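Researcher: Here's the sequence for the chain we discussed earlier.
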Amino acid sequence: MDTAEVERLIEEGIEDAEATVTKPRVPDEDHEDAHFAAVIVSPAFEGLPLVQQHELVYDALEGYMTTDIHALEMKTYTPEAYEEHEA
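Model: Thanks. This is the structure I predict for it:
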């Protein structure tokens, strides 16, 4: 699975989401390295605690977290919180 596919799954699974997915480290040539990092911005996160925001992301990734994705570092923001973060 590549970063574009992870982005697509998140954006299709969470309303009005914009996801930026990267690989946070150099892949290990001897092992399948399926570590990803994601920044996800969506109004769907409004009013939800962090745990529920992350659950929305996991739900969007369906069963891939146990098969194609070994680890996912994520930062979730509402659009307003993201603007403040970037300022």
